[in-house]
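Hi support team,

I've been running sequence recovery on a batch of backbones for a student project. Most finish fine, but this one hangs at about 90% for roughly twenty minutes before it completes. I'm not sure whether the input is malformed or the queue is just slow. I've pasted the structure tokens below so you can try to reproduce it. Let me know if you need the job ID as well.

Thanks,
M.K.
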């Protein structure tokens, strides 16, 4: 059950014995991908780093994850169909040739992308992905880049924002695609959707 506005979220519960510690979004994605490809349940993830960990208020403290102070959250999962093959991401999808020119598309399950507050309204358990799509002139791009750490780059007339359960995106030409920091390769058409409550994460 995804989070409703004003409702409590998460519960005080430590990482179970079969849980897996991950130190980055990429490690978390690897665990998810291995489980999905094998047709097995995704184990609970103990987050020690990464943008999803930061979004959930994680401290990177392994001892805390195994203590009564740990908090366990239900978390959504992003998926994308590329060339007929399904892939997953826990924090973010990024399609771009360069941050300095050309179109950039991001789909955010987490709020942060490195030091940038890319999706300040994103919530990783609201059953939606925050999708930003833009191709700004260089001067506006520099201004937006300076504002990214504080999340004040949006709203912007040249950045299309959507909060979606699913979306089809035509990139028009082959564009490098990254999932949680992993370069998947070039893609031209993306079918993106959210899988609500697919993960259990502990911080």
């Amino acid at each position: 059950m995804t989070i409703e506005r004003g409702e409590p979220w998460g519960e005080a519960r430590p990482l179970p014995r079969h849980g897996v510690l991950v130190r980055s979004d990429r490690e978390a994605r690897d665990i998810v991908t291995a489980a999905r490809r094998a047709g097995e349940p995704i184990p609970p993830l103990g987050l020690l780093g990464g943008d999803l960990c930061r979004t959930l208020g994680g401290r990177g403290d392994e001892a805390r994850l195994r203590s009564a102070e740990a908090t366990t959250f239900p978390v959504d999962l992003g998926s994308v169909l590329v060339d007929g093959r399904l892939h997953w991401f826990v924090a973010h999808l990024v399609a771009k040739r360069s941050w300095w020119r050309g179109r950039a598309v991001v789909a955010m399950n987490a709020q942060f992308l490195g030091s940038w507050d890319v999706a300040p309204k994103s919530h990783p358990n609201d059953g939606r992905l925050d999708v930003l799509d833009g191709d700004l002139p260089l001067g506006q791009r520099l201004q937006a880049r300076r504002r990214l750490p504080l999340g004040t780059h949006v709203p912007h007339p040249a950045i299309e924002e959507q909060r979606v359960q699913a979306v089809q995106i035509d990139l028009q030409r082959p564009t490098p695609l990254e999932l949680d920091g992993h370069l998947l390769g070039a893609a031209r058409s993306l079918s993106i959707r959210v899988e609500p409550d697919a993960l259990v994460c502990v911080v």
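--
Follow-up from support: It reproduced on our side and the slowdown came from queue contention, not your input. Residues 25-38 form the longest helix (14 residues). No action needed from you.
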